[in-house]
Amino acid sequence: MDVSTALDTRTSVRAFTDEPVDLAVLREILTKAARSPSGGNLQPWRIYVVGGDVLADIKARAADVLSKDPRGETPQYDIYPRKLAEPYKARRFEVGEDMYARLGIPREDKAARRAWFANNFRFFGAPAALFCFVERYMGPPQWSDLGMYLQSVMLLLKEAGLDSCPQECWAMLPETVADVVGAPDGLMLFTGMAIGHADKDAPVNGLRTRRAGLDEFAEFQGI
Ligand SMILES: Cc1cc2nc3c(=O)[nH]c(=O)nc-3n(C[C@H](O)[C@H](O)[C@H](O)COP(=O)(O)O)c2cc1C
Question: Which residue owns the Cα nearest ligand 1 atom 9?
Fold first, then answer.
């Protein structure tokens, strides 16, 4: 698979089969992805991969915390800016509407939307997942390095016939995740990522999200 195909065919998968994921394959992918660039070659990504009993434990603990308070724990960063302006607000709205349309859940049915959202905290049925942390004292440049690493992981997963969904929602449960994986206090959770094989029959996995046209985000000058 070439890079263009991997980029074009990677999508966020939100329904997985229970087919297991080979640990050796995951180890190879995480190793290869470490060729991603990072400012000063800091390689600030800190990854915890979970499956089996640990994954089950996180799911159970997440369900327990969220049953007491659906807002989860105190987030350690703003998942979105508090005031999201256009065009970003409309894009966020659109992807939500497109996804719920595929699921057949209308806007008014808040309970069904909440129930669907809870699937996030079961990793959408994926048999494996990772959590990406970063040292708390690091800033936006290092956080951008995390994105480069994670995109490499997702493309390599695609190449290996695997699917993924990055999951910032886990930032709603930073204490639970850190506790289960044993991450030290100095590390801050950025995101989770569900990993497995897409359930090809699930309508939600047919979602092809849109992208802004080139001229909406790029300018070419003197070239
Ligand atoms: C850092 C990051 C965190 C995300 N968190 C979630 C999440 O918690 N739950 C979810 O369903 N999708 C999540 N997504 C998926 C985005 O909604 C998705 O990438 C976007 O809508 C574009 O769709 P595509 O990935 O299918 O191309 C996340 C994506 C990124 C990059």
Answer: 167
Categorize the per-residue pLDDT at 150 as very low, low, confident or very high, splitting at 50, 70 and 90.
very high
Q: What average pLDDT score do residues 65-81 get?
A: 95
pLDDT band at 61 (very low <50, low <70, confident <90, very high): very high
Q: Which domain holds residue 26?
A: 3-79+122-205
Domain membership of residue 223 (yes or no) is no
Helix locations, 35-107, DSSP H: 52-68, 88-103
Residue nearest to atom 10 of ligand 1 (CA): 167
For residue 177, being part of any structural domain is answered with yes
Q: Give the domain CATH number at 153.
A: 3.40.109.10
Domain count, the chain: 1
- Decide: 209 in ligand 1 pocket, CB within 6 A: yes
16 in Cβ contact with 123 (< 8 Å): yes
* 153-178 pLDDT, tens digit each: 999 999 999 999 999 999 999 999 99
Question: Which tokens hold the place of 67?
Answer: 């049953």
